[in-house]
Design a protein that fits this description.
The protein has about 80 residues and is α+β, with helices and mostly antiparallel strands. The protein has 3 helices and 5 strands; from the N terminus they run βαβααβββ. Strands 2-1-5-3-4 form a 5-stranded mixed β-sheet. A hairpin with a 2-residue loop joins strand 3 and strand 4. It is globular and about 25 Å long. The termini are far apart. The relative contact order is 0.30. The model has no long low-confidence stretch (mean pLDDT about 95).
Length: about 80
């Protein structure tokens, strides 16, 4: 499944990108699983998206929980709890 990723504020700064398109393995089917997939990349990904960090997540521009199902062509966004304009 191919989805689009968006990163905001400190997450964007940490991973050095505002977004990308990614092909996910078949077993990655929720927003939380996307986070785990990205953490497995290691380095800045593991640090920026670590489970002990407070992060907000959205699927298709709607705030969501880790168990939210994703769909082909969707957008998953990660950002800190408080962001500026």
């Amino acid at each position: 499944m191919k989805i689009n990723l968006r990163f905001f504020a400190s997450v964007r700064e940490a991973v050095g990108s505002s977004g990308e398109s990614v092909d996910l393995p078949a077993d990655v089917a929720t927003v939380g699983a996307v986070r785990d997939f990205l953490i497995a990349r290691g380095g800045p990904w593991a640090d920026a998206l670590a489970h002990e960090r407070a992060l907000r997540m959205a699927f298709n521009q709607v705030m969501c929980e880790p168990g939210t199902a994703i769909a082909e062509g969707g957008e998953v966004a990660f950002f800190p709890p408080v962001t500026g304009g």
